[in-house]
Amino acid sequence: MKMFSSGRIGELELKNRVIVAPNGIRGEADADGTLSDRAIARYTAYARGGAGLITVGHLHVENKVEDHLNGVWSNKPRIDGEVYKLKWEMLTNAVHDYGAKVSANLSAGFGRMAYPDTVNTNPVLAPSEVPCYWNPAITARAMTKEEIRSIVQAMGTAAARLRSVGVDAVELHACAGHLIDQFLSEPWNHRTDEYGGSTENRLRFLLEILSDIKNKAGADFPVIVRMSLKNYVPGGRDLEESLEMVRILEKSGVDAIHATAGTYEYRRFANPSTYRPVGEPARFAEMIKPEVSIPVIAFGKLYDPAVGERLLQEGKADFIALARPWLADQDWAEKARTGRWEDIRPCIGCHEGCLVRSLENKYVSCALNPTSGMERELTLEQARDVKKILVIGGGPGGMEVSRVAALRGHTVTLVEKSGELGGSFLAAAKPDFKADLRNFIDYEKRQVAKLPVRVRLNTEATAELVEKMAPDAVVMATGAVPVVPQKLPGVENACTAVEVLNGQKECAGSSAVVIGGGTVGCETAAWLAESMEDVTVVEMRPELLADLNVFNRKQLIELMEERRIKTMTDTTVTEIKKDGVVVRTASGEEKTLKADNVLLAVGMRPADELRCELAGKDVQLYSIGSCVRPGIVMGAIWDAYRLGRML
Q1: What percent of the chain has pLDDT over 70?
Q2: Among residues 371, 373, 452, which one has the least CA distance to residue 405?
Q3: 509 shares its domain with 595
Q4: What is the mean pLDDT of residues 391-410?
Q5: Which of 83, 116, 314, 597 makes a 20 to 30 Å CA pair with 359?
Q6: SS3 for 525?
Q7: Which among 130, 131, 129, 124 is positioned nearest to 109, based on CA atoms?
Q8: What is the rounded radius of gyration, in angstroms, for the C-alpha atoms of the chain?
Q9: What 8-state DSSP symbol labels residue 69?
Q10: How far apart are CA 403 and CA 448, in angstroms?
């Protein structure tokens, strides 16, 4: 595979072409800003897992112009003093032991992206006076030339400090709408001095940073620029101008370009979700490749090794960079190299364990892999006392607890009442845009099949069956079932979205009303719109998708708009008829919506009847996932792994 041939970035030789892109170091600093043992363990795991270059960051390099010592970013490692070098040297030594190299992603700051309620930057600073992203009511103050020079010098000093402890390269964070990207982009840079106006002037801040790094860290010290080629904001930088900038950067000494796109305003490429195709953002690397002779790094939902290998074979990129796939599986590269592609735990683009936790000021992890960020604490050991364990329910949680318990040496029987493993994920993965979830179901099935887990399909678990099997422990993983509001007039004229997705009920005709604008309702509507001309979502709350995180919400709404789905919020369904529904709007107006099909997506309730029945019996009983509290898959997987580890 070309992926595992050696490659060069400037003077740096890498053993392969697989790069760990920045995937956050939130929660990986001690109280004084020293790099934590947690961070060292995580990045060392990537090196052990076969990565060629591991990018740590993004790191802020100073705390005077923009204060990062207070609030949401205060638990990130620092590099603005000599005292922090010790742990960075420990990190580089550990990574180098496995033949991997280390790059630090350096950020000049947030600028208008700063968290004004938690970061003590009174006022927020940016290239120009522009509204802040998180709170447009706050206007950023234009930076002075002295402040610009201060950041430039801090970037160079940080790079030199990092090189002195063995860091092999730096990557400049010129993307996602952060400060360097703001200088590059006319919507946020209205300056009339030498840092604004023309393309060359808007590049000046970045070029001065590059020059200072080369002067202080050495002309041979590799500098990569991670750059958004298109902002996707009104008046933002287009591809033609970005290509001109890339050519200038190459002439100025940049050693590689890491191609990305988008901003916080437009996350489709910056943070591609489960709703976006595999490898979609990588096309931006292909656009750059003919324009420069320096290496180009492709990025964006490349968890499938076949996609990355094809990019390299076709000459569309020189390296591939993955961020969240490493959180999902720390051994991604080694499994790809040895042909164990089916054993790679796939990222599902949910953002729950990574970016959502980051916003919550928690250490970055993965919804499907609780060992991510807990590499030392959540290792598996052989069980001292082998137990006979009965797992009831073959959904994600049931499969995961069975997998972990079997790895520890327990005798495991998994009972599933249907004819297929997968549980509620089978319905969730039905739409065409949910292939990521289907991949994860298949992964879990394969892992269970490779282990001595006895799987009994088409078996209804009862108290009598439990008593007959006499297990040492019973794990309830029965999931949740759709809520059906029995008091709603005409509810018998509707079916649930889950029934339709599972193929238990069919939809006919050209129109549908989906009652409920949460994730299940909106995803079902987007799926129905593939074959129906008229699909409407009715939601009683003021907004759609209140149960979905901010990273994925915008992308699902965008998909719904593309498929021309009508939406009604602040609207209550008062009656379901055979040919539609009667609704009442927030103003009290009553309307009748005609439809060939009416689907219910108003929530889920625990399928806990057997759990309640067994609770009074002499059995060691555990419950995980949605049969306790319906929610996202992260809850079920984390419950399952931790329980399986402790049984």
Answers
A1: 98
A2: 452
A3: yes
A4: 98
A5: 83
A6: helix
A7: 124
A8: 26
A9: S
A10: 6
